[in-house]
Amino acid sequence: AQSVTQPDIHITVSEGASLELRCNYSYGATPYLFWYVQSPGQGLQLLLKYFSGDTLVQGIKGFEAEFKRSQSSFNLRKPSVHWSDAAEYFCAVGARGFNKFYFGSGTKLNVKP
Amino acid sequence: EAGVTQFPSHSVIEKGQTVTLRCDPISGHDNLYWYRRVMGKEIKFLLHFVKESKQDESGMPNNRFLAERTGGTYSTLKVQPAELEDSGVYFCASSQYLMSPLHFGNGTRLTVT
Q1: How far is CA A67 from the centre of its chain?
Q2: pLDDT value at position B8?
Q3: Which of A23, B16, B31, B57 could share a disulfide with A91, CB 3.0–4.6 Å?
Q4: Cβ separation of A105 and B42 shorter than 8 Å?
Q5: Per residue, what are the HEC states of A8-63?
Q6: Residue A100 in contact with residue A42, Cβ under 8 Å?
Q7: Is B101 part of the contact surface with chain A (CB cutoff 8 Å)?
Q8: B72 touches chain A (CB under 8 A)
Q9: How confident is the model over A3-21, as pLDDT tens digits?
Q10: What is the mean pLDDT of residues B6-10?
Q11: Using the beta-carbon criterion (under 8 Å), do A36 and B3 form an inter-chain contact?
């Protein structure tokens, strides 16, 4: 069965520190992978996506993610976190020929001054 | 371009009542999805429209939920009669092509008391 696991429910980092949010997926087909961010009261906004090619993808707001097929992972990273990055982050997976995306349960990021 | 619009943003109803949620997708987006997030859990797929046709409603919890998409434009999701476990945030999302990244509305927070 298809699933997405985000093992960290809450993460707190200091402003300026680096960040890595974990995502593992279980999917029978070659996956399409996404990270979305949700700020309070807002909808989900796409940060970045991976369809094929270079396994390190760059997104908006200085985020990047790396697809590791052998580990079934798509972890999100940022070298230096800003207070405005405090939000909830969702990993999602889909696949060519399928019509729906599967989402994880989200990771809430808190940024300390 | 105007984004995905959902109405209402919040709804509080009593068990047994009826509620109708509305979604206006981005103009020209044939694909429309409904997702739901129950408190702290993953964002779960409910159903997918292509234009006015339901492509996949495998995520609809039961027959108390009815979704329509009139003329391939806006969509409604009706819950009748509402139960306590229906509480959550209902997201609508649209995309131009299948497996394109989703554009999300801000969600409707439904509370059933």
Answers
A1: 11
A2: 97
A3: A23
A4: yes
A5: CCEEEEECCCCEEECCEEECCCCEEEEEEEECCCCCEEEEEEECCCCCEEECHHHC
A6: no
A7: yes
A8: no
A9: 899 999 999 999 999 999 9
A10: 97
A11: no
Give contacts of B41 with chain A, Cβ < 8 Å: 105
Question: Which among B87, B91, B88 has a CA at the least distance from the CA of B34?
Answer: B91
Residue A17: CB atoms within 10 Å: 13
**Contact call for residues A37 and A45 (beta carbons, < 8 A):** yes
* CB-CB under 8 Å, A32 with B99: yes
Q: What is the distance in angstroms between the Cα of B43 and the nearest Cα belonging to chain A?
A: 6
The predicted pLDDT at position B72 comes to: 85
Q: How far apart are alpha carbons B111 and B93 in whole angstroms? A: 21
CB A24 within 8 A of CB A105: no
8 A C-beta contact, residue B30 and residue B51: yes
Residue type, B33: Y
Assigned token pair, A83: 């207070």
